[in-house]
Amino acid sequence: MNIPLMAALLALSIIVCPVLYFAVGPTLDATQFETLKLLAVIAACSAAFCFIVGEVTGNNSQMDKLWSLLPIAYTWVIAVKGGMNPRLVVMALLATLWGIRLTVNFARKGAYSLKFWEGVEDYRWAVVRSGPAFKRRWAWAAFDLGFISIYQNALVLMTAFPALVAMRSDAPFGAMDVVAAVLMLGFIVWETVADEQQWRFQTRKWAMIGEGRKLEELPAPYNKGFNTTGLWGRSRHPNYFAEQAIWVCFYLFSIGAGMGVFNWSVIGALLLLVLFQGSSSLAEEISAGKYPDYERYCRSVPRFFPGKRYEG
Questions:
Q1: What's the pLDDT band for 12 if we cut at 50, 70, 90?
Q2: What Rg do the C-alpha atoms of the chain give, in angstroms?
Q3: Which residues, including other chains, have CB under 8 Å from residue 312's CB and lie 6 or more apart?
Q4: What distance in Å separates the CA atoms of residue 47 and residue 152, rounded to the nearest whole number?
Q5: Coil/strand/helix, residue 56
Q6: What is the C-alpha to C-alpha distance for residues 201 and 272, in angstroms, rounded to an integer?
Q7: Strands (E), 120-255
Q8: Cα separations (Å) of 256 from 49, 165, 248, 253, 262?
């Protein structure tokens, strides 16, 4: 993981969003400011929880567990404060559908537990922790606080900004809102299909390995170790592609609300696009170190946007 890049992202979040607010608009009214304060309190409590529990337990997937839940809370708070405006209700419903899907997908991997501080940690955090930059314990604690806890919570809050700016709109639910809703729903379905294909592939692969068979002895395509079937044969990260597209579509609602083609609520979607560049690079670095054919796969298949089917 590129640590300087992560630090730059945090600085970008702090600096660019206020600049866009004053340079582009729209300004927030009193109700929107009060709503933003409430959302900021929720985000701050979440950040404190993630840091404290992560440091005490050594499980740094606390934010991963909350990632799919917080946007549901944020969008419904905004919808209620906005008088249950039809546009805000549709946005909250779509965010809820997205959140339920992601929560279920993460839960079946063993991420959640009745003992909330337990559960399976995302494998990437162990890889990051083992890096030379974190040989000293304080360095990891600083990263945990600055990036995992504060930055990621700030980013998730920013993804809800299109709903926040739409609170003050008197524009009726129109064609742009319909386009945004249909596209967002379509990408939620896309991501669901991609995750299901990956789940079935990995479950079958590990079941055969659990029977005592070596990876190279498995039938194709399982012997490669990574999925090249379905959507994964046209995109290395079809789930990430859909995830980014979902929040770009969410931003379109702010345009439908009459806030202009470019307004400051776009910051969440933009930073999410940048984050997935780093996240996907880390995942690919890990996969390339485990599977001999993975680099060839990377040369043949686009990272995000679907392309020609892989013929490996």
A1: confident
A2: 20
A3: 224, 228, 293, 296, 297, 300
A4: 8
A5: helix
A6: 27
A7: none
A8: 36, 11, 13, 5, 12
CA distance 153 to 139: 20
- The structure tokens 């979607």 sit at 269
Mean pLDDT of the chain: 92
CB 144 within 8 A of CB 51: yes
Euclidean distance between CA atoms 134 and 130, whole angstroms = 7
Task: Read off the amino acid at residue 28.
Answer: L
pLDDT value of residue 5 = 66
Q: Which residue shows structure tokens 């567990």?
A: 65
Residue 98's pLDDT is: 98
Please write the tens of the pLDDT for every residue from 69-103. Answer: 999 999 999 999 999 999 999 999 999 999 999 99
Q: Mind giving me the DSSP string for 221-232?
A: TGGGSS--SGGG
Tokens of 261: 């083609």
φ, ψ (nearest 5 deg) of residue 174: -125, -160
pLDDT tens-digit series, residues 178-203: 999 999 999 999 999 999 999 999 99
In the three-class reduction of DSSP (H, G, I as helix; E, B as strand; rest coil), residue 225 is classed as coil
Q: Cα separation of 101 and 189, whole Å?
A: 9
Torsion of CA 283, 289, 291, 293, to 10 degrees: 90
Segments making up each domain of the chain, as ranges:
3-300
Per-residue pLDDT at 15? 81
Q: What is the pTM of this model?
A: 0.91
What's the rounded Cα separation, in Å, for the pair 16 and 196?
A: 37
